Amino acid sequence: MDSSSHGFPVTILEQTAAQLGCSPADQKLALHLDEEDELKHLRECFHIPKVKDLPPTDSTLVNENESCIYFAGNSLGLQPKKVKAYLDEELDMWARRCVHGHFSGKRPWALGDECIVELMADIVGARKEEVALMNGLTVNLHLQMLSFFRPTPSRYKILLEAKAFPSDHGEETLRIEDILDIIEKEGDCVAVILLSGVQYYTGQLFDIPRITKAGQEKGCYVGFDLAHAAGNIELHLHDWGVDFACWCSYKYLNSGAGGLAGAYIHEKHSQTIKPALIGWWGHEFKTRFLMENKLQLSPGISGFRLSNPPILLVCALHASLEVFGQTTMKALRRKSILLTGYLEYLIKHYYSEDKANPEKPFVKIITPPQIEERGCQLTLVFSVPIKSVFKELEKRGVACDMREPNALRVAPVPLYNSFHDVHRFIEILGSAITSAKQAANNAAPS
C-alpha cells in the first residue's frame, strides 16, 4: 500500500480493526499492532523509566510501578542499555592504559569518531567522507555558515525561517509554494538558504529536495539544520545534493544530553569549501603527529574538525547508532507513519471540536495532516489551559513537552514507543483534560 498518501494510516487502522471485530479506538487494536510490529524488539534496547522515577507523579492517580509513557524523544531520547558498558570500557582503558588508549583497543581514542561515522552516514543518507562527528550543533552551524556565506555586492542575503513568512495556516506552518516563491523572487541576491528539516515547534517536515533544487537553480548554497530530522525521517543528503547540514544527536539519536553532534558537506565541495577556523584535527591523519608546521588539510567536512573526539560522548552515541544499525530508516519511518497516524486518529476520534457542544473540551493538531509533511511529532493546542493539562499529564506519568505560548509537543518514537503507549496516552489525556477543565471552572469568578 502507498504510504505517501494521507489516507494510509486511517485505512490500515480501520481495516485491521474490522478484521479484529472491534472499534479502531479499542485497546485490542493497539495490542494487535504491537504483536505484529517487526521492530518491537528494539524497545528492549532502551531503558524505559518507571512512573515512580519521574517527577512530579501522583501515586493516587497512577500505578507507580508501570513504565512511563515517554513521548519526549524530540527533546531527549531514552538511554540505550549498552551505554553504561561502553563507558565502563573506556574508563577501564583510561585507568589501566592511560595514554596508550589513543591508539589501542576496539575504539582507539584518536579514531573514536571515525569508528562510528559510517553508522551515522547511513542514517542521514550520506557518504562516509561527507560526514563528521564533532562539537555541538550550534558550533557546527557557525563553522559551516562561516565558510558557505560569501557575500558579494549582488548576493548578500541569507534566507531563514521567520514568523512573518507567508502561510496559509496563520503563522503555524509554511507552505512549500510560498518558500519556492520567495526563492524565485529573491534568489538572485541570496547567498545561503538555511532552513530546518523538521520545524521544532509545529513538527512540519519541509520538502528538502525541492527546496535544495530551487535554491541551487538560483545560484544559492542550501543548508539544513536537521536537529529534529536526523533519526526521525528518511534523509538522502548526498542524492538530494544538499550543500551542507548539521544536527545534534541527543534527540532522536539518543546520545544523551549535550551529545556529540554531526555535520555534513557534499563531496562536490570537498576541494573548494575550506574551514574559516582551522584546528589541528583537520590535518590529514597520516602526517598529523609529525608537527612539521605544514598544514595538510583533510578534504571536505573532515577538515572542519578542530580537536580530538571526546571518547565518552562517542561511546554513548555508538550505543545508539548500533540500535539503528539493526534496522533501516525506511523501516523505522514506515512504523512511525502508522504510530503517529494512530495517535492522530484517536485524538480526532475523542477530542475533535464539536460546534454543537461548545462546552466540550477539544484538541487541535497544528502539525500538517499530510504524512509527507511531518515526522513522528504532533503538536497539540487545547481549548482548556495548556499548563494545567501538562501538569495533569505529568502527575499521571506522561513525559512530553510544553512549549510557550500554548503548544504540547508529543512524539511517539518508533525505536522504543509502542501502539499501546499511544492508547494509554489517549486514555490518560482524557482524565488530564477533565481535571484541567474542573480547575479552570473552580478558578473562574462565580
Automatic annotation (TrEMBL):
Q: Does this entry carry the keyword Secreted? A: no
| Taxonomic superkingdom | Eukaryota
Keyword Translocase found: no
Q: Which Gene3D superfamilies does the annotation name? A: Aspartate Aminotransferase, domain 1, Type I PLP-dependent aspartate aminotransferase-like (Major domain)
* EC number(s) reported in the record: 3.7.1.3
Its annotated pathway reads:
Amino-acid degradation; L-kynurenine degradation; L-alanine and anthranilate from L-kynurenine: step 1/1; Cofactor biosynthesis; NAD(+) biosynthesis; quinolinate from L-kynurenine: step 2/3
UniProt-annotated location(s)? Cytoplasm
Q: Which residues carry this modification: N6-(pyridoxal phosphate)lysine?
A: 251
**Pfam families with a match to the protein in the record:** KYNU_C
Reactions mediated catalytically: 3-hydroxy-L-kynurenine + H2O = 3-hydroxyanthranilate + L-alanine + H(+); L-kynurenine + H2O = anthranilate + L-alanine + H(+)
Key words, A-Z = Cytoplasm, Hydrolase, Pyridine nucleotide biosynthesis, Pyridoxal phosphate
Under the cellular component aspect of Gene Ontology, which terms does the record hold? cytosol; mitochondrion; nucleoplasm
One of the GO BP terms on file: quinolinate biosynthetic process
Question: InterPro entries attached here?
Answer: Kynureninase (IPR010111), PyrdxlP-dep_Trfase (IPR015424), PyrdxlP-dep_Trfase_major (IPR015421), PyrdxlP-dep_Trfase_small (IPR015422)
Task: Relate the protein's function as given in its record.
Answer: Catalyzes the cleavage of L-kynurenine (L-Kyn) and L-3-hydroxykynurenine (L-3OHKyn) into anthranilic acid (AA) and 3-hydroxyanthranilic acid (3-OHAA), respectively.
Oligomeric and partner information = Homodimer.
Q: Which family does it belong to?
A: Belongs to the kynureninase family.
The protein's name: Kynureninase
Species for this entry = Chelonoidis abingdonii
Q: Organism classification, top ranks?
A: Eukaryota, Metazoa, Chordata, Craniata, Vertebrata
